Amino acid sequence: MSLSLILSQLLNGLQFGVLLFLLAAGLTLVFGIMSFVNLAHGSLYMLGAYFAATAYNHTESFTFAVVAALAGCIVVGMLLERIAVSRLYGRDHLDHVLATFGMMMFFNEMARIIWGVQPYFLPVPEMLSGTVDLLGISYPAYRFAIIVVGLIVAVGAHLLMHKTRLGMLIRAGSVNPQMVGALGVNIKLLNAFLFGLGAALAGLAGVMSGPILSVQVGMGEPVLITTLVVIVIGGIGSVSGAFYAALIVGIVDTMGRAFLPTLLRDMMSREAANAAGPALASMLIYILMAVVLALRPQGLFPARRT
User: Which of 109, 196, 233, 300 has the smallest number of Cβ neighbours within 10 A?
Assistant: First the structure.
């Protein structure tokens, strides 16, 4: 187990973590601040990837693919909020779960009808097809670009929430929407903006993951489960918590899958290690979540309701 391999897997974990953050940031805005359980968030991630792949096939421009993914997801998100989600704000969380689970099934079938069952592939942009020298190793430039984009979004989200009047209204609206509405703020428009912003972040995650994953129906469900783990560990409603938790989950998951089977071979037979290693590695983030819930039920970095 060389140092370069450890550093390479650490960077892979960081890259996976920032992708999770792009999804978790949007979901925690809707789930934590608007108190709406949106299981269709993974579908917006899938649609972002499909929009980007379709736009690239017609233009061969990765920049245009990114624009198409963001614009398409914002439009779909805001239409979804106006047509269906806004009617459910006052309902029980169980109603949110049932309704958005139905939306998830709808979007999967719609994607199957429009794009078919065969996966799409989005190539790495030419200017990011090489490698960069990082910490003494050659690392794929595209994966490094994902890390940079994720960090830029994290800084932007922090500034939006804590340094702008809009962020102040979002935080105030999450605590007392009636009072904020009485002061003349259009709460419905604010909620629609939040949902559209969350959809845009999901679409950005979709287009960024397109060149390293195949774009296919149902690709949003597995990553949605991991994103919910991130939100629980970070603290519901905390964008900063989502960022730190996403990095922790990304690194733990990647390092566990890469090294746990090898470590187990030093403690048990090779056959037993090969059988137990991948299974234990896939459970690591859920074990981590259980430990966090036992010690800090509110999450590691809960939102401050002040």
Answer: 109
Helix (H, G, I), strand (E, B) or coil at 87: helix
Report the candidate in 305, 263, 306 with the shortest Cα–Cα distance to residue 284: 263
- Ranges of H-type helices in 164-269: 165-175, 177-182, 187-209, 220-234, 239-265
Residues in a beta bridge with 248 = none
Task: Provide the pLDDT for residue 194.
Answer: 83
Reference 109, options 218, 224, 203, 206; nearest CA is 218
Specify the amino acid at residue 207: V
Q: Indicate the pTM of the whole model.
A: 0.88
Alpha-helix runs per DSSP H in the chain: 3-28, 41-59, 62-83, 93-115, 141-163, 165-175, 177-182, 187-209, 220-234, 239-265, 270-295
List, for residues 258-299, the tens digit of each pLDDT value.
888 778 877 777 777 777 777 787 888 899 999 999 998 888
Task: Give the integer Cα–Cα distance in Å for 242 and 228.
Answer: 10
Which residues does 206 contact at the CB level (< 8 Å), separation at least 6?
A: 44, 45, 46, 47, 48, 49, 50, 51, 52, 69, 73, 215
Between 275 and 204, the more confident residue is 204
d(CA 205, CA 219): 12
Q: Both tokens of residue 130?
A: 């090489």
Rounded Cα gap, residues 156 and 13, in angstroms? 22
Confidence of residue 173 (pLDDT cuts 50, 70, 90): confident
Going by C-alpha positions, the residue among 115, 137, 169 that lies closest to residue 6 is 137
Beta-ladder partners of 120? 215
